[in-house]
Specification:
This protein has 173 residues and is an alpha+beta fold. It has one domain: Jelly Rolls (Sandwich). The chain is built from 6 helices and 6 strands. A hairpin with a 3-residue loop joins strand 3 and strand 4. The two termini are 22 Å apart.
């Protein structure tokens, strides 16, 4: 859930409404593959409900994700194929935002692009620092994965409200 809070805390209400209206809600059953390692993806995804696992070839499962997680953001940023496979573990509702439509929005709306890319960069930075700290290479002052930075705490209620509104809009549609 932290990922969506980072993202939505940096976006405007209008941005979130655009994503809700533009994206398509899709039901996925257990075993469905949302992202296949090495294969290009055609959408940015938000897990609205359910559970997915993230698996890396030769390593196995590296994470379990649920409601509020965003998938495909790294491929959006660097346009490289995904470095992991994402498999639905239990019935999931996922918002898919078509990559071509999203890229067009990013081109035509520089303010939206700046907000979205900054949010993704901040989250990836926190995730990397947390990983380094967990591996024992970081300083003790680096936040762990379970901690949120103070800037996020200031806007978490706004982001949570945006996500709740998105869920209600999409799951009742």
């Amino acid at each position: 859930m932290r990922k969506v809070l980072y993202i939505l805390s940096r976006l405007s209400d209008e941005d979130v409404d655009w994503m809700s209206e533009t994206g398509r809600r899709q039901r996925h059953d257990a075993g469905d593959i949302l992202i296949k390692q090495g294969d290009a993806i055609d959408s940015l995804m938000f897990v609205l409900d359910g559970k997915v696992s993230v698996e890396v070839e030769g390593v196995g499962e590296v994470a379990r994700l649920g409601s509020g997680e965003m998938l495909g953001e790294m491929s959006l940023v660097d346009e490289s194929p995904p470095s992991a496979t994402v498999i639905v573990q239990e019935l999931a509702q996922v918002l898919h935002i078509d990559r071509a439509v999203l890229n067009a929005k990013l081109e035509e709306d520089p303010a939206f692009a700046a907000r979205l890319y900054r949010a993704i960069a901040m989250f990836l930075s926190v995730r990397m620092r947390s990983t380094v700290a967990r591996l024992g290479y970081g300083k003790a002052t680096i936040a762990t994965e379970d901690e949120m930075d103070m800037a996020l705490l200031d806007t978490v209620h706004i982001a949570g409200g945006r996500f709740d509104r998105m869920i209600k809009k999409l799951l009742t549609a």
